[in-house]
Amino acid sequence: MSAYSHYPLEAIAAVFVGLARHGNVLGSQKYGLQVSLIGMKAIGESGVDWEAIETVNLAPEADVASSQVAAGDVVLTCRGTAVRVALLPERATGMLIDSNLIAVRCGPQMQPELLAAFFRYPAGREILERASQSTTRQKNLTLKAVRRIMLPVPPLPKQEQMVALLRAADRQHNLALAAAAQRLALAQNLVVHTLLENGE
To answer: Would you list the domain boundaries of the chain?
Structure first.
């Protein structure tokens, strides 16, 4: 049993859904406010796929502010066969999300990196799965359900320790990936040179 206090997500964060495309996003031949729109396809298992972000034209009456995201927002896909989670970096600030995504903007009681890590962990994923309205394998995560999710909230000093651990692990992970990529490139280079030298 967790010794941490539990709170509904809506008590420690602002939770909002993205912009509905119908009536707000104009066709490519029409002129309007041009924005970068993050849809469900842009949220992968490893984070944001920047190549999948669309540039769209919005109708003048579109409510831009209510769908605008910022660095540190935790984004959840609310439809599909599985709920995917991304922690938005600085690059995403000012972009919009569409209505297939729900954003969570943490207040001072919760570190966003910790929330994202929790939702990516099997126990956190299970909470999201239970909150979703499932028809066969398709998930349907609603704004109301996300706001009501109960979360353990450690004291801030403990959260800071956890975030420092996550950042250190992430740095080591990235270094290991870079080293593996370098070893692969060296091996490929050696093989190609060997083939060319012996093929003359």
So the answer is: 5-154, 155-200
CATH of domain 5-154: 3.90.220.20
Q: How many CA atoms lie within 13 A of 43 on its CB side?
A: 26
The Cα 54–Cα 66 span in angstroms is 18
| Residue 145 exposure: Cα atoms within 13 Å on the Cβ side | 15
Contact 80/61 with Cβ under 8 angstroms? no
CB atoms within 10 A of CB 72: 19
Q: What are phi and psi of 18, to 5 degrees?
A: -80, -175
Tell me the per-residue pLDDT of 43-77, one tens digit each, with 9 for 90 and over.
998 889 999 999 988 888 888 899 999 999 999 99
What are the pLDDT digits (tens) for 98-156?
999 999 999 999 999 999 999 988 888 889 888 887 666 777 899 999 999 999 899 98
Q: What are phi and psi of 97, to 5 degrees?
A: -110, 155
Tell me the C-alpha distance between 14 and 124, whole Å: 19
